[in-house]
């Protein structure tokens, strides 16, 4: 790896003085445009890790470097999506997707004059994820999977260099979830950006990521780093292949030993 | 909702009100209750018709007084609610004062207002304001203070300022709370203005009923009560419609039920 886009150097995190560590000695190097997944048992600090990278939380020890600069406050170059789509119910789907452009510069000052252009851009993006024709609908008129698609569009509309996903498909049924894997992969292959995907679904990690990190139970630590050799684009057929199954099983047995320890 | 039950929902308030009047009328006649204790509704409605010019004049006065106090309450309530709801410091500083103030019976404040402003319209407007602003403050503050942590993270990671969060999320979110509070506040404002007119004015529905009762014109007193109730219902109805129109997303559950 030549140049890391996101680098965690001996990072530790403690929420409260006198409490145990939430993250212990975490080192990561993520290349520009790399898609990584973080898997690990619940409560091991995966969400905390994302907060550190996005600058929403300061590291207790160590340094977090993104795009060559040490992170000291909320980054403005990242998009985020969570298990809960958090769309605003009083805004149409289109207006929800436009929200970041109303806040982030330089789009913000262009909003008034270029609203039409931005709306076309958002419409194109919504169409790309299969939500063409739903621009005027309100979030509560969409299914859970459709809301999550819109939420992905909102996270990416301002073309962030870094996308942080915290179990974004965790609440969806299996069919919808796997459809959304393809949606996400498509978005990422169209315009590569760096992705950190937190998930507890091992198949999801193997389907989507270039590199998979397995974390230990609290205090969280990176135990293994898997490089995923499967070629792109990954397809639903691949999930039935032996090498896919082997990777999932390999991860699973690793996690089992983590939990037993 | 099927057609039949929709029909019931539309007519049931009328049926209930007319039923109340019928029971009232029959009870008074059946038990031979003297008019100076409880006049029949028919006598009260007759009094409305008989004294319609005076009632009209006093009702307009009360309406304007109420709306004046209510308007001040809306402006003050929104500003105060925004301050309390968006800052933890303002919240903890203002909360005990607001609760203490709200606990004081406003009838006790009227003499103070009369001392400062003399009797008449001003104390009535101010009483209407004082009695009606609290629910607005409380509701606006509640709407602003509830922000999901994930949404807060999304906004912060976009570099949103406090003002951005307030304008893009806080205010829209608190709108349904705000409109709900308006319905309550406007009926409270009537209570305030009529109360003040009763003890410290020579105009308005409160004054009209007070002077009618001193002349033992009890049907006119009840006529006044009915008119005030009707004005309250009308204002409540208007703000209900405004509420439903402007916050469709928040009443979606009720729509489809
Ligand atoms: N705001 C907080 N204050 C104190 N402890 C926290 C806070 N957030 C998370 N924790 C603790 O830190 C640990 C890691 O949490 P989290 O990052 O949410 O785990 P995960 O996302 O892997 O389930 C947990 O033990 C949790 O209880
Ligand atoms: Mg989590």
Structure commentary:
- The complex is a heterodimer of chains A (261) and B (257).
- Chain A has 261 residues and is of the alpha/beta class.
- Chain A has a domain of 140 residues: P-loop containing nucleotide triphosphate hydrolases (Rossmann fold, 3-Layer(aba) Sandwich), CATH 3.40.50.300.
- Chain A contains seven helices and ten strands.
- In chain A, strand 7, helix 5 and strand 8 form a beta-alpha-beta unit.
- The radius of gyration of chain A is 19 Å and the shape is globular.
- The C terminus of chain B is likely disordered.
- Chain B is flat.
- Chain B is built from eleven helices and no strands.
- Chain B has 257 residues and is an all-alpha fold.
- At the A-B interface, strand 6 and helix 2 of A face helix 7 and helix 8 of B.
- Magnesium ion binds next to helix 1 of chain A.
Cα-atom radius of gyration of chain B: 22 Å
Estimate the global geometry of chain A from the Cα principal axes.
Answer: globular
Q: Which two chains form the greatest contact, residue counts included?
A: A-B, 29 and 21 residues
C-alpha end-to-end distance of chain B? 6 Å
User: What is the global morphology of chain B?
Assistant: flat
Strand coverage percent of chain B:
under 5%
Q: Flag low-confidence runs of chain B.
A: 253-257
User: Taking all residues together, what is the mean pLDDT of chain B?
Assistant: 89
The total strand number of chain A stands at 10
Instruction: Characterize the biggest β-sheet of chain B.
Output: none
Structural class of chain A: alpha/beta
Please report which band the strand proportion of chain A falls in: under 5%, 5-15%, 15-25%, 25-35%, 35-45% or over 45%: 15-25%
The CATH top-level class label of the domain at 1-74 and 196-261 in chain A: Alpha Beta
Instruction: Let me know the number of strands of chain B.
Output: 0
